[in-house]
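Issue 218. Parser rejects a valid record. Input:
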Amino acid sequence: MKRAALVACVLALGVAMLGLGGCDQAAKPYQGWIEANLIFVGPDEAGRVQTLSVREGDHVDAGQPLMTIDDDLQRADLNMTEATLANAQQTFQRALQLVKTGAGTQKDFDAAQAALREADARVVTSKTRLARRKLASPVTGTVEQVYFRPGEMVAAGKPVLAVLPPGNMKVRFFVPEPELAKIAYGDIVDVHCDACGKDIQARVSFIARSAEFTPPVIYSLEERAKLVFRVEALPTAPTRLRVGQPVDVLPAWKGTPVAQGTKPAEGAKP
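Output the parser choked on:
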């Protein structure tokens, strides 16, 4: 009887160990974080920031004014081109009268007409440069970061602030090479993060064609596979996520994570 009891205990312990191993395998998610494609807004010509209408974290709509850059040079350029246009108009009118009376030549008239068109085009260019000193948001989103404040000089093409549209957020995670065949474009994955409430779903939108080694910074306490593939997915609820936030990603075929010592859901793949 003692021997039978001992055998039963050993069998029970073995079953428990197998159950724990199966649960641990089913609950093992991929580690990743949230990234975003920011929209940078800045002047196309150097200048000093005069006004800034938004702060970090503000919601902005497409076309909403964001900032103004000093426009002294652009106004001076517009005045000069408008003066040149006025002179070109006078020259054209004289050439027109002369050609009508036969005192002028067609060549002089054509030259005056070409000069008038060029002067008019320069005025349009100057007005465009002046109008671009007032910058508006090109997209609807949230002001993610401000790089320059009023009174600071900004170089041409340098962003003054960055706007994040919700649709530009993505989940980036890494899949070990042995499990890559189980991930496909369009697959739905569950994304879990701290203080996010219930899981967020995302759709796989990118799978790297070449492998890479495990990144030096990865949010995991366990040692991951050395050879991994980068995968990106677009979340269905991006407003609940933050850039740089660590997340756990669990593909649908892995089932729902379960705590150690509990039975995995029926139908979940190992």
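Fixed in the parser; the record now loads. Helices lie at 2-26, 72-101, 106-131.
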